[in-house]
Specification:
By secondary structure, this protein is of the alpha/beta class. It is built from eleven helices and 19 strands. The protein is globular, with a radius of gyration of 20 Å.
């Protein structure tokens, strides 16, 4: 079968690899259909890894963690899904018995296996997977494969908001209008934020932010972003800042956009890994700074939000590629080409 593999910085190949075996007890064989290209995926391609986790030619990595699939075969004893079922797939598999799992924080599992990170991901024609109802979420006919794949970033955005519950009429700033930033914008509006200020250096993304519920948008290449937020809030600052760009400059700006006693939630992955923040400005505000990591048991609620029309996912998908166009997909998404918001790779259309 075919699989896309990253061998190092800017080195991605479409390889022929062995087919997985038939599923054993408690396993299913999946046929990925739609795989979203995430910012963490493009970091691994453009930079050759994230943080201290570097990809080397002797251990190439199959990327892809936002995905939907069709169940092709089920192993003995598997009854909750059948061949032909369409599912969204939770890409992070926890051990269930470590300290963090027992505390209910399975996304922080000490033995976590994560598709496209420390385990091979979904950009391959077949994948053997644990048959667990918490990992395989059946999709109704009303939900497309692409929407099923985008339940993963929706869950990330939901977790971001749930780390600090917004009060009705709170004000927020969202730094970065990529997929996660636009989903946070939708959810902040849904949660009752009275003012949603979105900052992004790409004009087409600011237009998308307006469509998703932003009350104000600004381009940090054209205006002083901190001054603009302070002016829009009459010098108060916002209640909550969501940093969803990974830009080192935006990370610094976010501190001074928050009001005294405000909250700063860090969602984006910065490059380089080591960044500086204005300590005195954060200290004077007594900011609560929260680092966000993916999500925790959110897929069923994310699906419910989608099927009830509470959020929109398909407008985010602007580009579609086939498996043999993976390099083009990663170049387009990673270098913000051609008005891209979300690129999706159709593995088995």
């Amino acid at each position: 079968m075919q699989a896309v593999r990253i061998y190092g910085k800017l080195d991605m190949r479409l390889d022929e690899v062995p087919d997985p075996p038939d599923p054993g007890p408690g396993e299913v064989l999946l046929r990925p259909t739609a795989v979203g290209v995430c910012g963490s995926d493009t970091h691994r391609y453009l930079e050759g890894g994230i943080g201290k986790r570097v990809i080397t030619p002797d251990k190439p990595l199959v990327p892809g963690h936002e995905f939907a699939a069709v169940v092709e075969k089920v192993g003995p004893g598997v009854t909750f899904v059948r061949p032909g079922d369409r599912v969204a797939v939770e890409p992070a598999r926890s051990c269930g018995h470590c300290e963090l799992c027992l505390l209910g924080k399975r996304h922080l599992c000490l033995n976590l296996a994560m598709c496209g990170s420390n385990a091979d991901g979904a950009l391959r024609e077949r994948i053997l997977y644990p048959a667990d109802e918490e990992y395989l979420i059946p999709l109704p006919d009303s939900v497309s494969d692409e929407e099923g794949a985008l339940l993963e970033p929706l869950g990330v955005a939901m977790h971001s908001l749930e780390l600090h519950r917004l009060r009705l009429a709170d004000t927020v700033a969202v730094l970065g209008a990529g997929t996660i930033g636009l989903l946070i914008t939708q959810l902040a509006k849904l949660a009752g934020a009275s003012q949603i200020i979105v900052s992004d250096p790409l004009e087409y993304r600011l237009e998308a932010a307006k469509e998703m519920g932003a009350t104000d948008v600004l381009n940090p290449r054209k205006v002083d972003a901190v001054k603009a937020v302070q002016d829009l809030t009459r010098g108060r600052g916002v209640d909550v800042v969501y940093e969803a760009s990974g830009s080192t400059e935006a990370l610094k700006q976010g501190v001074e956009m928050a009001r005294p006693g405000g909250t700063y939630i860090l969602v984006g992955l910065p490059v380089p890994d080591m960044v500086e923040l204005p300590f005195t400005a954060a200290w004077q505000r007594e900011l609560t700074v929260i680092f966000q990591k993916r999500m925790n048991d959110i897929y069923p609620r994310a699906l419910k939000m989608l099927t009830r029309g509470m959020v929109r996912l398909l407008p985010l998908v602007t580009h579609r590629f086939s498996l043999d166009q993976a390099v083009q997909a990663f170049e387009t998404a990673g270098r913000y080409r051609d008005g891209v918001l979300k690129a999706v790779i159709r593995v088995n259309p």
